């Protein structure tokens, strides 16, 4: 798992995000469980074994699922098998039921608050805020 990736358990789903706000993604908790295993320097067969045993999958199904997840979340992975010196994420944190309705709505861009909010600070005013008391005539004020 890339150093910049963070995983966060939420109610019925999990959040994964990288350094840039565009990399945020709502996940099924089982997928976050998979990503947290990827942070431990394990090989895919080891991850498949743990994943399969945890979710009661046959070996063939577990390996197939891991292959799909490796492909799906490759933008979060660096495929490095060196063990991480400290544990960033505990896989046990992601062992809870998913809320399919929240995950389904996320595919259509309807994210629950605060996950659906993204702010990028530019440190310069564009005078487009709906509640701003400044206007274009005050551009000479260096604070804005």
From TrEMBL:
InterPro entries: MoaA_NifB_PqqE_Fe-S-bd_CS, rSAM_sf. The keyword Iron-sulfur applies. It comes from Sinorhizobium arboris. The keyword Iron applies. Keywords: 4Fe-4S, Iron, Iron-sulfur, Metal-binding, S-adenosyl-L-methionine. This is Uncharacterized protein. One of its GO terms (molecular function) is metal ion binding. Its cofactor is [4Fe-4S] cluster. Signal peptide: none annotated. SUPFAM superfamilies: Radical SAM enzymes.
């Amino acid at each position: 798992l890339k150093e910049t990736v963070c995983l966060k358990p939420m109610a019925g789903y999990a959040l994964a995000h990288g350094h840039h706000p565009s990399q945020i993604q709502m996940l099924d908790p089982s997928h976050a469980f998979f990503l947290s295993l990827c942070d431990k320097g394990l090989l895919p067969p080891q991850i498949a074994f743990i994943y399969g045993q945890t979710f009661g999958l046959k070996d063939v199904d577990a390996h197939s699922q891991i292959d799909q997840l490796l492909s799906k979340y490759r933008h979060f992975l660096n495929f490095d098998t060196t063990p991480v010196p400290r544990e960033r994420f505990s896989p046990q944190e992601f062992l809870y039921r998913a809320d399919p309705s929240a995950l389904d709505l996320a595919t259509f861009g309807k994210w629950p608050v605060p996950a659906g909010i993204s702010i990028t600070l530019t440190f310069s005013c564009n005078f487009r805020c709906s509640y701003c008391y400044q206007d274009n005539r005050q551009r000479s004020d260096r604070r804005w």
